[in-house]
Design goal:
homotetramer; 362 residues; alpha/beta; Rossmann fold; Dihydrodipicolinate Reductase, domain 2; six-stranded parallel β-sheet; six-stranded mixed β-sheet; 12 helices; 22% strand
């Protein structure tokens, strides 16, 4: 499946870590053509490579490899002045404080797929994880109608929520779900790099707290696991008890999850539900969708972030150590690994945009 | 309180990491006099410093600081030939495979306080955490009688269990306890150093599995939290669902715990129960007992292993982030930090021995 | 350029870290067909995947990604029983103690390209770095003749030497070379994984000593930088003062080098000599040769191991911070990064084999 | 030796990392009484503990242990309003941009001992390393006279210079010194924490560049190793070729040094010169002076930062791997470890102040 002509996109917040990840993923994507890079006023007018280079010559590029050649010399525009003529879609990688104002400026004219939290908690805004709840896109028409927008806003969730819901969704649908206890060991890249986590705090240490993260996981997971009824999303009303910590791992969030299912399930049934999850979505053949939404590993000491985070370029969630949980009713527990800056950020957002293109919403 | 004459001890397994930690703690302990260092046949006859030095000159000393001067030149004896005349107590830091045979050899004659798991699961053997269940020492007489031993064996628990039960004990007693879900992020030193964890596996990674650890935590926690009835320990019959992982932290196990209490408790009550725990034991004034068994921290991002592991030389368990758990009935959750090679190993064992001396059992 | 039929190779020491790296590189190589995997007696008879899997289920695979599918089920043979019929070349990744005996067994019949040091210091054995001194292959005929072998042995150097000589060679040829002072900060993977460096030693630390490494660098660099005269290699008789340390980096050796040149050279000349180096070798178009032997970076804070080690799949040496050295006569200094398990090990050896095929020596 | 009454000091820049280190060291120092804590306007008026606590409750304390009780509730004053009545000495831990103006404000009235570089390169300002060149204090009178100051300024050097000169000084005096090549592997704490090094840059990496560091080492080392002639310091006019890198170590700078001596010296002579260095200074019995300025280790794999950095509370420089350097004339090389935030920062400055008190200059 190829698209002709390609969808023309602007990347807003292009100089930050999340924005850079957009560029890396878009550089190789057959469906999108990047027609504008936008950032703050400070970067405006500079070629992209200069905008991320310090006066001392340090290139502030946080991704693997070099700055893609296609973007190095593109002049960056001030996001508030971004000209939307000829732009079919905006990818917003703006940090949340500035995100609301900017996205509110773009969405009346073009679709905005965002990694920011600005709109996540609004009733008429879906929070989509590809393969999990793409049907929630069904409320976008309502968002457009109620707000009088030609475009719309679709944020992706917090990166910790993403990994959690990918494995919960098949269990919730197959067995029902009563409650979830999760401890996360989150990677450094989730905190960005300016300033992000100080090396002095990370080395030989765990930081047992990430501000607002646990609340986000509760609210976002309930919304994503909710069902679409007409043009409403009815959240799944279950408790999600999260403990979120930061560990000295570069990429890849590890989650230790215990879930109380709606009915007894033996472990083979659980594994089968996980393995079979999302096959129909995979069959859509969208460019950024991996061949398997979930990989179940039977190796006793897996998943490990360094080994498993790049399975299918970070778009597959790897689940291992599936065991009974002796405390919860119909309790099952597992450890999963989700790539926080691939599926959990830019590439996940691109995957959402591909689905929206596929359905004709963009 | 001082003791005169001092208790004469042999350290068996003195060349390993756990044995080295015994030496560090005993070097400054007013109650014990080290009269013998024993290890495997390979070390026998060598001065201690030579026994831990490789042919290439590398000194295999895994503790902070240098080898205590008092021990550097002491000749190491073969553990199987250890002469127990003039030995009042044996500290056993032998790895578990060899531990059973050796401890069985010593215990008929002298008390053995051990960090190994060899005898932990036997009915007439207490597994003691100082300040938590020292009353379990009450079954030692039965052990001696039934086995016809003049000495006895008292192991300390697995280091992960130690931290867990310190915080659970006051809650179990004050509110009752129905079940516990715990995720551990364990330090490298818990795996020893020969070979221990490979640096290639530890860097930028989490190892989500520690063989047999989760089973140990279930069984040992139940036993330690059990009550002494006559000369029996009746385990606390509750589910303990553990997920044990290894992180790139040198010392200090971090545990994220969710507990279902026997009755509703508000968080202030929980904190008070934790803060007041073990005050009577502290008042005994034993040399290795810290001034507080538990420290409750109100800082939002604590405990952290690098910062908090050496509170009271690693003998205090630091508990923070005490919150309600929304999934469990009467649910409370917290994060705790326990020093796995201090309270959780040699110094914990020494603290047990001090209590046994105090009670006259040694 | 393609070859038909492909060269049939056996990988000996296939289960170790170096052997695994051979498999990863050979899996994608168009010139070689792996026809046998050999290892120690312990692995013999098992499918490869089982041979590297522990009884507990841990898969001892040290490379990125999974075990290549092509090799997982191949039965491993005992290296001492390796049948050389139908084998055109042996890649030896055997650790040095066992390497001499095995290589001496194979070389009389087939060419052996080895990562071990067993034969490096013999007069009739070239130590080849592709693009640097491949002409040294000229002494192989003498080796065959003197030893009466149909095959031969060609080792690659120690991985620290490799990076050093790549940048020294063009300077030695262009300006002359009087002496070199080098401090290396070597990656963990250079020490292997069984046991390799303990995580307890690596974390928050530098190990300032690697046994025998500094001597190897002196001898091997002199030999590689030497010139072929007839069927003799005349070593470059200059002092190479090395200080070798181990740092907590997974892959990629960083070398800080100060060199005394034979004549004054300004920095632009030096950079030009580096940039132009090996272009003719590159033009041979061998499969594992990168498009640039040396990349000179002008960024002030580069090369960095995490960022630069995978330039051209680890086959390009990245050189930065080229400055005058104020102490040495005609002094120049730089920092370079060389991938120790790519160019410095298996893939470097494969590249040598490609050259030997190209020349008809294999 | 005790002092009565104690010297009353103000710590300026008390809330930063260097300032915190002053507080830790001063808390246990018998000679100094902290009478004022000063910082920027933002902290003014707040109790110290509040000044370092974020709105979210995070306590920005970068040192081991807790904030010393003696200082937690002391109100911080705005440095520009610091009242010098009743202040005998100022310790300045101000970052260099602000340091010049502030120190210029204080020095006319009271002595200022500073960790900043603001005044290091002025002709009438000594840069003192205790035990190395304390005689340079002899130019302070000239500074006071020429500037018309009652007080004065004495900075300590850059932390990398400190370790370097401690080992160079005895060799320069005993054998003469012609030139030095040094590669540093510097700890994270040298870069501070706001922002300091990002954990994403530090993990699995080396940063091969520290802005301005190499120039500082050249200039400062020459000055410190210079000789006092009358009221002039005559720098030692030798080349110092430095390569400064940042590694993932928390504390302790490791330096690999090659030196060209003024005359041939065998390694035993070198070791003796190092071991005997500073004995007279030690005999002064100043509180922060360690019992040995230099410790020479014969262990093959030492010094290591994690093991050796706290020798004598970080005030002793540990030198190991002393070998001949084959490239330099009369070449000797070694590896040394120097604690960058103890001797190399606050505690080094306190040690200087103790010497100035001892001599009557304060």
């Amino acid at each position: 499946m190829s698209r002709n002509p390609r969808c023309r996109v602007a990347v807003v917040g292009a100089t930050g870590v999340a924005g850079q990840q957009f560029l890396v993923s878009l550089d190789r994507n057959p469906w999108f053509e990047v027609v504008a890079l936008a950032a703050s006023e400070r970067s405006a007018g500079k070629p992209y490579i200069d905008a991320i280079t310090s006066p001392g010559g340090h290139v502030g590029w946080a991704c693997e490899g070099e700055v893609p050649k296609a973007f190095a010399q593109v002049p960056v525009v001030d996001a508030v002045d971004l000209n939307l003529d000829g732009v079919d879609l905006v990818f917003s990688a703006v940090e949340s404080d500035a995100a609301r104002a900017l996205e509110e400026k773009f969405a009346p004219r073009v679709p905005v797929v965002s990694t920011s939290s600005a709109f996540r908690y609004e009733d008429d805004v879906p929070v989509i994880v590809p393969g999990v709840n793409h049907d929630h896109a069904g409320i976008i028409k309502r968002q457009q109608k109620e707000r009088g927008w030609k475009g719309f806003v679709t944020p992706i969730p917090n990166c910790t929520t993403t990994g959690l819901v990918v494995a919960l969704a098949p269990l919730a649908r197959t067995f029902g779900l009563r409650g979830v206890i999760v401890t996360s060991m989150q990677a450094l890249s989730g905190a960005g790099r300016s300033p992000g986590v100080s090396a002095m705090d990370a080395l030989d240490n765990i930081i047992p707290y990430i501000p607002k993260e646990e609340e986000k996981v509760q609210i976002e997971a309930s919304k994503i696991l909710g069902r679409l009824e007409g043009d409403q999303i009815v959240p799944l009303d279950i408790p999600v008890s999260a403990t979120c910590t930061r560990v000295n791992v570069r990429d890849g969030h590890t989650l230790c999850v215990s879930a109380s299912l709606g009915r007894p399930a033996d472990l083979d049934e659980v594994k089968e539900a996980l393995r079979n999850f999302g096959l129909q979505f995979v069959d859509l053949g969208l460019p950024s969708t991996p061949p398997e939404i979930i990989r179940v590993t039977e190796q006793p000491d897996r998943p490990q972030p360094r080994i498993d985070r790049l399975v299918n370029d970070g778009m597959t969630t790897v689940v291992g150590r599936i065991r009974a949980d002796s405390v919860l009713e119909n309790g099952v527990k597992w450890i999963l690994l989700s790539h926080n800056t691939k599926l959990g950020a830019a590439k996940g957002a691109i995957s959402v945009a591909e689905y929206l293109l596929h359905t004709g919403l963009v």
